[in-house]
Specification:
Order of helices and strands of chain A: HHHHHHHHH
Oligomer: heterodimer
Shape of chain A: elongated
Structural class of chain B: mainly alpha
Strand content of chain A: under 5%
Distance between the termini of chain B: 78 Å
Number of helices of chain B: 5
Number of strands of chain A: 0
Radius of gyration of chain B: 25 Å
Largest interface: A-B, 63 and 48 residues
Radius of gyration of chain A: 21 Å
Helix content of chain A: 55-70%
Chain lengths: 201, 105
């Protein structure tokens, strides 16, 4: 039989200390994904509540933080599922128009990228860009500007690294719908980061 | 780099244009470039996208940039102990503490 001491590893690991020990890290984890401080605080609260209920079962095999982050992940996915149900489908959720303004509309090559406004060369590697606080801020700003449903799909796919099928199940949407949401999210994000960071430097 | 002046250079360019005119344009291809990052495309579409990428440098760039975004976003999301400055508000902190200490008793 497991002893109580094993289940609750040490004194410092009591729920009362969670806020001081993990609160800000969990908050930032949620904020990056939900892009809104109030919502992020709310899911952290939900995660703590769920953690309290399953605390007796926490086996101490993983660190307390890893365990809490795991619970928070579930709460974030739940949040996206709820909001995707109640957020109206955006009227621009079509496949083709996400790059409007960057494509030529007339001349010899309509429907092809415009040489001026189409994708510009990006002179940085992902890791080098991430080193710069200014880039990280631009990226967060651009993520923040994504419409709700596109952001949910994008965050689950690219941050939570779910497969396409997993995202469809989590959000209860069709594969075709997911493709459109991801295409639009990526197109908007690409355009935003190019304008805000690459062209602006 | 004066390849364009040679006969081979001009033929190559003519072939590229010939192909580009017969393939779906960038507007139609872009969504499938995105979709190809999430799983295999139907074979016919896959061939069309590959051929388009063969003759369209801008779409190659577009694809590379989507992968750039994927990598930066993943890298950022994987950092749990990140270097951000955002903190719980004092009100939220107090509320959470109260909730947790009450629940413990």
């Amino acid at each position: 039989m497991m002893t109580k001491a094993r289940m609750i590893p040490d004194e410092a690991r009591s729920p009362e200390n969670w806020v001081d020990q993990h609160g800000d890290v969990l908050f930032r984890f949620a904020l990056l994904r939900l892009r809104d401080a109030t919502q992020a605080e709310e899911v952290v609260q939900e995660a703590f509540l769920a953690a309290l209920q399953s605390y007796r079962n926490f086996d101490g095999n993983s660190s307390e933080r890893t365990w809490l982050v795991g619970i928070l992940r579930h709460k974030i996915t739940d949040y996206f599922r709820r909001t995707s149900k109640f957020t109206a489908v955006e009227d621009n959720e079509t496949f083709a128009s996400a790059n409007d303004g960057l494509l030529m509309t007339e001349g010899e090559w309509p429907g092809h990228w415009d040489f001026e406004s189409g994708p510009a060369p990006w002179d940085a590697t992902p890791l080098a860009a991430l080193e710069q606080a200014e880039f990280r801020r631009a990226l967060e700003g651009c993520l923040g500007a994504l419409p709700e449903r596109q952001a949910s799909a994008f965050v689950l796919r690219e941050m939570e690294e779910m497969t396409g099928e997993e995202v469809c199940r989590a959000l209860e949407i069709s594969a075709a719908n997911l493709w459109v949401l991801l295409h639009r999210a990526r197109a908007q994000l690409r355009r935003c980061i190019e304008t805000k960071w690459f062209r602006g430097r | 780099m004066s390849e364009q002046g040679t006969i081979w250079g001009r033929t190559k360019l003519a072939m590229i244009f010939w192909l580009a005119r017969r393939l779906p344009d960038c507007r139609e291809t872009a969504p499938y470039i995105s979709a190809s990052l999430d799983g295999p495309l139907p074979l016919e579409r896959q061939v069309k996208v590959k051929l388009h990428l063969l003759v369209c440098e801008m779409c190659v760039r577009y694809r590379r940039q989507l992968l750039f975004l994927r990598e930066t976003v993943r890298e950022q999301a994987r950092k749990i102990e990140d270097r951000g400055e955002a903190k719980l508000s004092p009100e939220a902190r107090a509320k959470l503490k109260k909730m947790l200490s009450r629940a413990e008793k």
